Amino acid sequence: MGKTLQCITLVWTLLRQSPDCSPAINKAIIVCPSSLVKNWYNEFGKWLGSRVTCLAIANESKDKTIELLTNYMANRSSRCGAPVLIISYETFRLYCKILNASEVGLVLCDEGHRLKNNENLTYQALMALQTKRRVLLSGTPIQNDLTEYYSLVHFVNPGMLGTSQEFKRHYENAILRGQDAHSTDKEREKANERLVELTALVNQCMIRRTSSLLNKY
Question: Where are the alpha helices (DSSP H) in 61-107?
């Protein structure tokens, strides 16, 4: 689907320009499964070559990792030597105190469906990151679970769907009641209304591409 290339393009654009002709961000963090850290590093090299330097945290020792991450977060220059940090979910969680110490322009989470539970430690560590721009990237269909759906949308746009209790009260309860085999016509009608309302709201921050897009290729 070209997700990686689209995201590299986004990162490069934000690092280079904004409406006022200066860089929109100084640093970006790519968080992904440990098996994909080197892949992301190679993809940046493939598409951008030496135009951007990436710092990939893979198999470094604890002391070396602390040193690298501390230096990365301490560098607030508009011309950061290595503006793109690539790190695994596990490593991010372990060193989140260092990574949450100062602001970051963008965080991009690959295999973002991992963040479907807003109560797990990785989700909470990433939510604490000081950033105004969050992107979730996933090739896995989001399961038909409204609680997980809420967690993913809330990560990208905190407050868009209200609190979890407000979401449950306004959307989830009504939609689930309407899907019940014993629901009334009125309950099904209300469920459909809430589903249409929810879809319209979330579509403001979601880009969805299906395999049909690639069929002609």
Answer: 62-74, 89-94, 96-99
Q: Are 111 and 138 in contact (CB under 8 A)?
A: yes
Q: What is the pTM of this model?
A: 0.89
- What does the pLDDT read at residue 80? 67
Q: Which residue has the higher pLDDT, 152 or 139?
A: 152
Is residue 3 helix, strand or coil? helix
Pairing mode of beta strands 28-32, 106-110:
parallel
Identify the bridge partners of residue 134 per DSSP, sorted by sequence position.
Answer: 107
Residue 146: CB partners within 8 Å, gap ≥ 6? Answer: 167, 171, 172, 175, 176
Q: Is 81 exposed, middle or buried (0-12, 13-18, 19+ CB in 10 A)?
A: exposed
* Of the candidates 175, 172, 100, 174, the residue with the CA atom closest to the CA atom of residue 130: 100
Q: What is the pLDDT of residue 143?
A: 61
Tokens matching residue 73 = 């977060």
Binning pLDDT at 50, 70 and 90, where does residue 119 land? confident
